Amino acid sequence: MSKHEFTIDDLKRILHTSAGVPEGVGPGADILDVAFDSLGYESLALLETCGSIEREFGISLDDDAMGITDTPRTLLRLVNEQLVAPSTT
Asked: Is Phosphoprotein given among the entry's keywords (predicted)?
């Protein structure tokens, strides 16, 4: 399924499904600029989350770019850049 925009609500849903809900982070919490490790998500949880994003949104996330994705805001930016990138097929 392809969508035009990846939102913070999409990310929260996929994070919670893939890696669970971290303790102390409520559904309305502003997490955009909080580091994933500070939220309780380690690298394995992020790999699972990114795999789910790739499958659901029909994109491929570059491993090098993922290395610099440390907050929800940077992941949102990366995914949305892929969603608007011209198709090579």
From this structure: yes
